[in-house]
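Notes, p. 3: input format for complexes.
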Amino acid sequence: MANTERIPDGIHNAIDYEYRAPEVLGAQRFAYIAGGSGLDVTVAANRSAFGRWASVPRLLRDVRGGHSRLQLADMALPHPFVLAPVAHGLLAHSQAELATARAAEATGTCLVASTLSSRPLEVIAAAAGPARWFQLYLQPERAHTLDLLARAQAAGYRAIVLTLDASLQLPSRSALASGFVLPADCVAANLARYPQAPTPQPGEGQSRIFQGAMRHAPTWDDLRWLLSATHLPVWVKGVLHAEDARQLKAAGVAGIVVSNHGGRGLDGSPASLSMLPAVRAAVGKGYPVLMDGGVRSGHDAFKALALGANAVLIGRLQLYALAVAGALGVAHLLQLLTEELHATMAQAGCATLSDITPEALLPC
Ligand SMILES: Cc1cc2nc3c(=O)[nH]c(=O)nc-3n(C[C@H](O)[C@H](O)[C@H](O)COP(=O)(O)O)c2cc1C
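Output follows (364 residues plus flavin mononucleotide):
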């Protein structure tokens, strides 16, 4: 794979990075990143959900003072795009998350560093701007989780994003059919110091799922433990059900991310966008709700904001831009997304993010 450090001709829209990525990534890596799980039903649902809404232009509104600034938790941000946690940045670029962190720093963007990043969280923190969160997968040993928390706090991450929808990740048929296997150099740098016990073979009458893959899956007890184990605000990523959202808020979670892991969790689960209005209704107006899954343009983000999100996370597009043009590509992607959002806002008569309400959309 040959990464370049210049923006190729022909990248006019954010989604152009997706169209360009297969050339750079090659068929197998692209299949792994683009795929979800199972038959990719939810990957497709995430995208098609945006097509069921139209944005209605409004006339004669003065938007000359317009901007897309927002306050998200303790961060003043220039736009509502957050770089989602994505594992194994080395698959996309030789500088991996270091390049992404530089782009975040240059554009004032909030970055969420993955537990499974190719570069250690300390290295990412040193290159990223102050707007940085750490995405946590609970480790089988609580001592290891505590160590990760201490490292994240020491490295200046401002919040923990606990991902709960990926205890079981069954690779997609499309990725399997491509023959993709994780290269040997693609290791989770953060976890190198924590010895992992091999997965035991299920005993007689035991399930490979219940007693196997799910044996360390987090429970409500684990969440309560985590909330008591750190002073950092804890967000939860992977929420789709309104009742889960209500209970997480009541448990003391700082905010939630409506997400189905980009279709990489339960295949056949609903699109994130489809569940967003019910989740917003369940937690009320002032509670922070982010959303991801299928966002490929600033116009998509506009729809998510109208349906109740405070900001959106960008997953695959981030990896595609990283692969195509490194740090420059990710910074350019964020600029394109922001301009696309501004263009939609201006035409819909919304000068600020708070002007974007459900009335801006019509089902179609
Ligand atoms: C290749 C890949 C790796 C991912 N790794 C992680 C991860 O380590 N932690 C996590 O919470 N989510 C992970 N995700 C999910 C993203 O954070 C995000 O929820 C999803 O990509 C959003 O959908 P989108 O790709 O359509 O934008 C990953 C997604 C992809 C495609």
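The domain at 16-53+65-183+216-363 is CATH 3.20.20.70 (TIM Barrel).
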